Each structure stands twice: as structure tokens, then as C-alpha cells.
């Protein structure tokens, strides 16, 4: 497998972009939780269908949203860890070479976690 040169500035920019996106997602998930709470507290939303909808929101969304937050937070932490480890332990040169196999392994790990989450969400 060939090695490709990777500009560390691009990697660092990706890391920062990921942090920003995770912060936005975290905020949006907080907004969804607040909206669910508002729906659950609506006095005008009554009856069997309303009770079922409220239970659904509580069971499904209140459990899935923290799971998504955890996945995004872990993804951000993993990216940061890999960047720091690479800079500190492997190569501090800004023109470092990262092997494609390493990137492919990381991509596969992320895809596996995504698939597992998707299966959980589809249940």
C-alpha cells in the first residue's frame, strides 16, 4: 500500500472543525431534549395518543440522544488523541507521512460504530 503525504495543517484544521461540529451537535441535541420536555409538559396534549407519544419520546429519544452525544464526544476524543499521539510519539515533522493502512483502519472503526448506532436507532 502506498504512503501518502499528509499536511499536518489539514489534519489540525480537521480536528478543529470536528470539535466545532460536535459542539454544535451537542447544543442541538440539548435543544431537542428541551423540546421533548416541553411536549411532555403540554396540558393541551392529552389522551391515549398523547400519552403514547410522550412515552415514545421519553423511551426512545431520551435514551438515543445521550448515546449519540457519547458517540460524537468519543469520536472527537479519538481524533484529538490520535493527532496528539502522532505529533508527540510518531513524528513531529509538519510534513509527516501517514500510512494509508492506518487511516483505513481508523475509517473502518468509525464505520463499524456508525453501523452499530444505526442498528440501534432502527430498532
Give a structural overview.
- It contains three helices and two strands.
- It is mostly helical and 123 residues long.
- The chain has one domain.
- Helix 1 (8-41) runs antiparallel to helix 2 (48-90).
- The longest helix has 43 residues, at 48-90.
- The mean pLDDT is 82.
Q: How is the secondary structure organized here?
A:
Blueprint: E1 3-5, H1 8-41, H2 48-90, E2 97-99, H3 100-122
Antiparallel strand pairs: 1-2
Helix pairs in contact: 1-2, 2-3
InterPro entries: LXG_dom (IPR006829)
Family: In the N-terminal section; belongs to the LXG family.
Pfam family, one: LXG
Provide the spatial order of strands within the biggest beta sheet: 1-2
**Unreliable parts:** none
**What is the tally of helical segments?**
3
Helix content: over 70%
Number of domains: 1
Q: Could you tell me the radius of gyration in angstroms?
A: 20 Å
Shape: elongated
Structural class: mainly alpha
Percent of residues in beta strands?
under 5%
Order of helices and strands: EHHEH
Task: Report the span from N to C terminus.
Answer: 39 Å
Described by strand count, sense and barrel closure, the largest sheet is: 2 strands, antiparallel
Mean pLDDT across every amino acid position: 82
Domain LXG: 2-123
Pfam families: LXG (PF04740)
Protein name: WXG superfamily protein probably secreted by type VII secretion system
Organism: Paraliobacillus ryukyuensis
